[in-house]
Amino acid sequence: RKEVEQDPGPFNVPEGATVAFNCTYSNSASQSFFWYRQDCRKEPKLLMSVYSSGNEDGRFTAQLNRASQYISLLIRDSKLSDSATYLCVVTSNTGNQFYFGTGTSLTVIP
Amino acid sequence: EAEVAQSPRYKITEKSQAVAFWCDPISGHATLYWYRQILGQGPELLVQFQDESVVDDSQLPKDRFSAERLKGVDSTLKIQPAELGDSAMYLCASRLTGSGTEAFFGQGTRLTVV
After folding, report:
1. Are strands B75-79 and B65-68 parallel, antiparallel or unpaired?
2. Which residues of A touch B105 (CB under 8 A)?
3. Which of B50, B99, B105 sits opposite A43 (nearest CB)?
4. Reduced to 3 states, what is the DSSP secondary structure of residue B85?
5. What is the pLDDT of residues B38-72, one digit of tens each?
6. Which of B51, B17, B45, B15 has its CA nearest to residue B32?
7. d(C-alpha B77, C-alpha B45), whole Å
8. Closest Cα to residue A11, out of A68, A83, A66?
């Protein structure tokens, strides 16, 4: 069983739409959680960490549900520049190993 | 801003040849990772170093892949012999050791085996 499962999409949404991505993880003792963004043929870059209480950064909201072992990312008021692949990342129980989901492709359409 | 440096950016090699990739992590980052990313998939961990020691190489195909980080700073990943299925992006990442710290990625080496 994979450490992280993520719906690959693709998601094609109009500008201004709200879109949500989810991923599930298998290790209940996973320590840390992140969302990374990856533009086409570029390296992944940290979008935001995910905290137990949930956290928000502008139009982006991340949630963690430890009981159900999933994390989510909500993007409000989508912009064309949000078009990218969004990778969820879960660490091991020690926090040292990073496991990536397959990524969810988002295209925001004018 | 400090960056993870990787070279080369692109590499084309014939199958059965040897190929090597280099990574220089952000200064002070004790943890270094090598990932392989096939188009349309997420990065898959190949090997993880803590300083000069390998802490996880369970997914490294050891019959053809090797990695080293002799002085605990920069690292080399080698493939010998290369196979067609090795065509992928090879990403190096580094991070400070500690709970909750993010991993920073280099720009990657895109390998094409022909």
Report:
1. antiparallel
2. 43-45
3. B105
4. helix
5. 988 999 999 999 999 999 999 999 999 999 998 88
6. B51
7. 13
8. A83
